[in-house]
Amino acid sequence: MNIWVIPGGGVDPGETPAEAIVRECKEETGLSIKIERQVGIYTPINRLANYSYLYECSVVEGMPGLNDEVQGIGFFPLEKLPHPLFFLHRQWIEDSMLRLPGIIQKPLSQITYFKLLRYALCHPIQVFRMLFSRLGIPINTK
Questions:
Q1: Are 63 and 75 in contact (CB under 8 A)?
Q2: Neighbours of 54 (CB within 10 A)
Q3: Model confidence pLDDT, tens digit, residues 47-104
């Protein structure tokens, strides 16, 4: 079973989070994007997560394309988001839709060792894929 996620990834050394999202979107989707606004900064509460930066972006140019990191690309109306959608990303989309003034700042309290264990027991293949991805070893196939 695959799970839908929003584009993103790690920040390379010497790179800002804004530069990282532009690069990651290009790498993962083939699309060049423009950042419209920063929505949030999410801080880790343990070693399972890193600081996460959420941006609202628009497509500038390009054609969507698949690669070793991506098995599917889709654009969905907010009322018809795909299933399964990574639970944290669903929350981030909801945060973005609040259109609050300023930047949301929240702890990543949803990422806990207990939840990872429970998820791993229910979805072991997805957990291994995520771990390999975090190690820089994509295992998706086209």
A1: no
A2: 23
A3: 889 999 999 999 999 999 988 778 899 999 999 999 989 889 999 999 999 999 999 9
Q: How far is the C-alpha of 67 from the C-alpha of 130, rounded, in Å? A: 16
Which two tokens mark 126? 């997805």
Whether the CB-CB separation of 11 and 94 falls below 8 Å is answered with no
> Coil, strand, or helix at residue 118?
helix
Distance CA 53, CA 43 (A): 9
Q: Where are the beta strands (DSSP E) in the chain?
A: 32-43, 52-61, 104-107
What is the CATH class of 17-112?
alpha beta
pTM for the complete prediction? 0.82
